[in-house]
Amino acid sequence: MQHRPRTVLLLAAALAAGALGAGPGPGAAADDGGPDRFRSQEITWGACPEQGPAEMRCGTLTVPLDHADPARGTVDLAVSRIPATGKARRGTLVFNFGGPGAPGVALLGEHVREFADLGEAYDLVAFDPRGVGRSEPVSCGGALDAAGVGDTDVARVESLRTVWKECQANSGPVLPYVGTVNVARDLDVLREVLGERKLDYLGFSYGTRIGAVYATLFPGSTGRMVLDGVDTLTEPLTEQALATAQGQQQALDNFLTWCTHQNHCVYGTNARTAKERVPALVRRLDAEPLVGYDGSYVTGQDAAWAIALGLYSKEDWPRLADALRMAEADRDPTGLLMLGGPIGPEPDPEPSEETVPGEETAPGEETVPGEETAPGTGQEPGRPEPGRPEPGAFPWGRAPRGSFDDYGTPPDNMAAALIAVNCADDPDRVGAGGAGRMLADMRALEAEFLKASPVFGPGQLSTVLSCYGRPAGTDFVRELRRTAGPPLLLVGTRGDPATPYRWTEETAARLGRTVVLDHKGEGHVAYRASPCVRERINAFLVDGSLPHGTRSCPAGE
């Protein structure tokens, strides 16, 4: 879920997204999701524009723009379904893959094979939340990119109010009504339209926030629910950013310990000195960026962003080690660009020596990093597209293929949606005394963020500005406590760089009646990384098998 490091371009994306607040709060009684006409509709299923298996079908669900006042208008949500493959069909399992800003329809199509066991018992269903993907996407029109020119000063911070107006102008009526409370209400309409008495649900990263809100609003309609990579419900954005910097630094330290025990680690065999050399690399590249043979370049904060992506799955650690070797030993940005630039087809999960990043794209060969993976963006080869989302927007660190131009989605949609939703869910606003006060507060926080992480702290600090000048969001998520409903399964990973394990414990305490699965491994979300976690999640969802208390899965199992 969390926040991207500060480069000039990425800071603009984090600051400028047009969050208008949450719109109405929870509104009507918890189980009143709108008039019967929305719940009695039928989805017409047809071919999908997204890549996916031939049996995947897509359709549209219409929901109220404002669940408390349906006369305000409607929102059309993109939905996909893959029928159960087994004879003993249990029902429907709904997914959310994270974000905010992740297009669920495309991600289900790309990752369906990873859920084959669940797909025997369930119809697998995903949706693009309101404001995301093909569900009336929000956008700031180019303002995200334009806001990144020059240094951050009082005038530039104040100019974000103008950028906000561009977000309003380019997003249409849905923008004031993004936010998790409304998404949870949409989800309950989807449940009933699909003909399910209870919602069975698997949410990753930000998807755990949706699940927690749903389980609180609709306890009587909550079925078997799993939350993997558990998001915070209580911390303001400043505290989230600090916790994320700490989590990323811990993940980096774990990676460097691993690297120094491998052959050919560019940092040698001393983990302590390795932990000093990565901050030095970031500082050096901020002063003098790496420039590739094709004109692509990587600043220090670009490098930090790419490193963060490489930490999201332990499967990517060999790629990250190679990217750092190329940057340090060869002054070649190719590896970092492949981690942090536009992403095309997802690479093989276990790269071999023959397919090490950079070897197939060396100078003189025809393939230039970024050219084949960013069609139609208009960006120079190897540079990220405008408004690229932070690493935490996707549990596996990469946007789905064809996320933008193929479906008419604005290029900045994921970044715009991420900030809009986070601000809609957050009642706190910093910088109430104006831009000068805002920057003074940031300077006062700088030492704390640098202490948390010399690599990721500066970039995470920039997200303190994310909601500057926006109306306060709802306090419903902050005050959320569950008083009824079935037990939930919460999964936390000890080395998670995006959603620290303590958030799993805190959320479990707030939701009550939970079982915590403690994954003692690395990476963001555990279902893909750990056979032990996958087995326990599948057993709960398919058979209802759920132990009491806290259980654990060892690293590597």
Descriptive overview:
- The chain has 557 residues and is an alpha/beta fold.
- Helices cover 37% and strands 12% of the residues.
- The chain is built from 18 helices and 11 strands.
- The protein has helices spanning 8-16, 36-39, 104-111, 116-121, 143-146, 154-171, 180-193, 206-217, 237-259, 271-287, 300-310, 317-330, 334-340, 413-424, 435-452, 457-462, 501-511, 531-543; strands at residues 57-64, 74-82, 91-96, 122-127, 199-204, 222-228, 290-291, 297-298, 488-495, 514-522, 550-554.
- It has a 9-stranded mixed beta sheet, sandwiched between helices. A two-stranded antiparallel sheet has the order 7-8.
- A hairpin with a 5-residue loop joins strand 7 and strand 8 (297-298).
Low-confidence stretches: 1-34, 341-388
What is the H/E string?
A: HHEEEHHEHHHEHEHHEEHHHHHHEHEHE
Output the number of helix runs.
Answer: 18
Proportion of residues in helical segments: 25-40%
Gyration radius, in Å = 22 Å
What is the CA-CA span between the terminal residues?
A: 25 Å
Question: Could you name the key traits of this structure?
Answer:
globular, disordered N terminus, alpha/beta, 557 residues, single chain, two-stranded antiparallel ribbon
Reconstruct the topology from this structure:
Blueprint: H1 8-16, H2 36-39, E1 57-64, E2 74-82, E3 91-96, H3 104-111, H4 116-121, E4 122-127, H5 143-146, H6 154-171, H7 180-193, E5 199-204, H8 206-217, E6 222-228, H9 237-259, H10 271-287, E7 290-291, E8 297-298, H11 300-310, H12 317-330, H13 334-340, H14 413-424, H15 435-452, H16 457-462, E9 488-495, H17 501-511, E10 514-522, H18 531-543, E11 550-554
Parallel strand pairs: 3-4, 3-5, 5-6, 6-9, 9-10, 10-11
Antiparallel strand pairs: 1-2, 2-4, 7-8
Helix pairs in contact: 1-14, 7-8, 9-10, 10-11, 11-13, 12-13
